[in-house]
Amino acid sequence: MKNRMTKQCRILPVLLCAVFLLSGCSGKPGDTGDDVSASQTCLITAISLKTEDREIALAVGDVCRGTVSVEGEGNDFFKTVYLTATDRSVVTLRLNNDTHDSVTDFDIIASEAGTAYVYAMSNSGIKSNRVKVTVTDAAETTDAAETTDAAETTDAESAVVSTARTQPETQTTSAPTEKPSPDPDAAAGMIPPAAADTTGAEQTSLTTEPTAPQTTGYTEADPVAQTYILNTNTGKFHYPWCASVKKMKDKNKKEVEDTRDNIIAQGYVACKNCKP
């Protein structure tokens, strides 16, 4: 029994050595177990994002195109590069990653009003420069344009009214009239003194009569009811064929059949384009 145990103790180390040698030689020489090809690896050192402007202003639905360029070693850069933004609800991004070049294009689609910063980033953590994108609602842009147009119209009409107020004062100022010289016939007693005074008064009246102020633009006449289009937002009224009518929102448009004087009395001002 003792001899048998001794033999087993001698055989066990030999078996262990054999197992170790067989496990070390089971693979092919140079096989590390990794399935990564050298042609598929790339080392990115820098990423650059380029657009037409550093700060982009878009309305909802607009699209802006730019390019992404990558510097590094290898190929298939854009398999490991992606686009992102600080607020993904403001913009939608599309990157053309089906290319083996170091430059590709991308699209920025305005989704909703707000501000976001767009940039590119690699899986290894390399980031590009950031582009600021400001998105506004199309309806807000139209309202702002109408408000600006209304303000410009009000300023122009105020200037016209101010000029019209000062113009009559200038025109009514008459040159001093010369005192009529005594009529020799009247002095001789051939013409009664009363008649001579009357003639001088008539001449003075004709000389000092103020000139009526000249008017420009619309002249008052018999009021006639016509069809006008009111912009309840800007406070202006237009002819139906005016180009500004096509740009109005339906909620701000109102068609009326009335005279020009009545519409102005309601607080509306005439459009400076069609000049109703």
Please write out the topology:
Elements: H1 2-24, E1 42-50, E2 55-59, E3 63-74, E4 81-85, E5 91-95, E6 103-110, E7 114-122, E8 131-136, H2 138-172, H3 184-187, H4 193-208, E9 226-231, E10 236-238, H5 243-247, E11 253-258, H6 260-265, E12 269-270
Parallel strand pairs: 2-8, 10-12
Antiparallel strand pairs: 1-3, 3-6, 4-7, 5-6, 7-8, 9-10, 9-11
Task: Provide structural commentary.
With 276 residues, the chain is of the alpha+beta class. Among the domains are: 41-136, Immunoglobulins (Immunoglobulin-like); 138-171 and 224-276, no CATH class. It has helices at residues 2-24, 138-172, 184-187, 193-208, 243-247, 260-265, and strands at residues 42-50, 55-59, 63-74, 81-85, 91-95, 103-110, 114-122, 131-136, 226-231, 236-238, 253-258, 269-270. A four-stranded antiparallel sheet has the order 1-3-6-5, with no helix packed on it. Strands 2-8-7-4 form a four-stranded mixed sheet. A hairpin with an 8-residue loop joins strand 7 and strand 8 (131-136). It is rod-shaped, with a radius of gyration of 46 Å. The N and C termini lie far apart (128 Å). The relative contact order is 0.09. Mean pLDDT is 73; it is low at 25-39, 169-174, 186-210 and 212-218.
The end-to-end distance, rounded to whole angstroms, is 128 Å
Main sheet strand line-up: 1-3-6-5
CATH-defined fold name of the domain at 41-136 = Immunoglobulin-like
What is the radius of gyration?
A: 46 Å
Task: Write a short abstract of this structure.
This protein is 32% helix and 28% strand. The chain has helices at residues 2-24, 138-172, 184-187, 193-208, 243-247, 260-265, and strands at 42-50, 55-59, 63-74, 81-85, 91-95, 103-110, 114-122, 131-136, 226-231, 236-238, 253-258, 269-270.
